[in-house]
């Protein structure tokens, strides 16, 4: 199959230099898996919007967390956190949302000793993919007690904390959570980290951002127009035909055709040099 040949070559020749434009790069600043999984969760949660702003936000957050994010989270107290991160803002998330995220992370460490073990407690190994696992994971974290952050048992309506933990049950593409799972679950190939055990890469769903949405349509991997959970599963199903054991391995390289290589489907000079142009309906 020509598509498999082209995408396998794209995967094999993907550039680690693209990590500089990717929030995943923050994980590789730390040697400890305990630190990396925490950094990955926070980095993925704020991975929306302009790339430069995302990276600037993460520099701020991790700069204040110190040398060991794991130790910071284990000792995290919301009252001090609200002071430490006072004035924090990333688009529509504020210091309260960040502190609630840190508290959620502390809860997971207290209950299961790691985020990976907490997720494994939600994992349905018999399901076709991670759909039910993500539903349970997000529901558990949204139902936790954040009154020490918000001053009330209920998460206030003006908080965007729930945005960090969307659910396939509502139709969301869950892009950032799917990206986080890719980082943690896929084998360490110089890009992804391969930290978590017990979760099959075959069950992962591709993170659908604007670049994957567009490029997947160019390649005929989906005909859907809305970036929702159905689109994410449809694209993943097409990629699973190429690699049943590791369908989302193509995500980083495809996504960075847009992020780092500037693919927008409009500049035909770029199309001429693109490695997927042969099968792309914009470049062919």
What would you note in describing this structure?
With 284 residues, the chain is mainly alpha-helical. The protein is built from 14 helices and two strands. The protein has a two-stranded antiparallel sheet with strand order 1-2. A hairpin with a 2-residue loop joins strand 1 (89-90) and strand 2. The longest helix has 18 residues, at 95-112. The mean pLDDT is 94.
Helix content: 40-55%
- The overall pLDDT, averaged over residues, is 94
Oligomer: single chain
What integer value in Å does the Rg equal? 19 Å
Q: Strands, helices and their partners?
A:
Elements: H1 2-12, H2 33-45, H3 51-65, H4 69-74, H5 78-84, E1 89-90, E2 93-94, H6 95-112, H7 115-120, H8 131-142, H9 147-150, H10 175-185, H11 210-218, H12 229-242, H13 251-259, H14 268-273
Antiparallel strand pairs: 1-2
Helix pairs in contact: 2-10
Summarize the structure.
The protein is mainly α and 284 residues long. It is built from 14 helices and two strands, in the order αααααββααααααααα.
Keywords, separated by commas or semicolons:
single chain; 284 residues; mainly alpha; two-stranded antiparallel ribbon; globular
